[in-house]
Description:
Helices cover 63% and strands 0% of the residues. The chain is built from four helices and no strands. It is mainly alpha-helical.
Amino acid sequence: MMCPMRSILVVFFTLATLSFLVEANPIGVCIRNCAQCKKMFGPYFEGQLCADACVKFKGKIIPDCEDIASIAPFLSKFD
Length: 79
């Protein structure tokens, strides 16, 4: 029989490990950044185009909403 503290530690360690694996996925990070930029720039940011680029380039290019060079391909004029 496991003590309650040990059970809590096992659950915590498992969740921490799973969280690390999810965050380490570069495509996931890329898509989350696209979503964040879409929230920040609204109709001026092409979120779908950004997400498509994440998949196409397998997360090798990560958009940074504060770095104009990294998001320039996804910005558009709003008429």
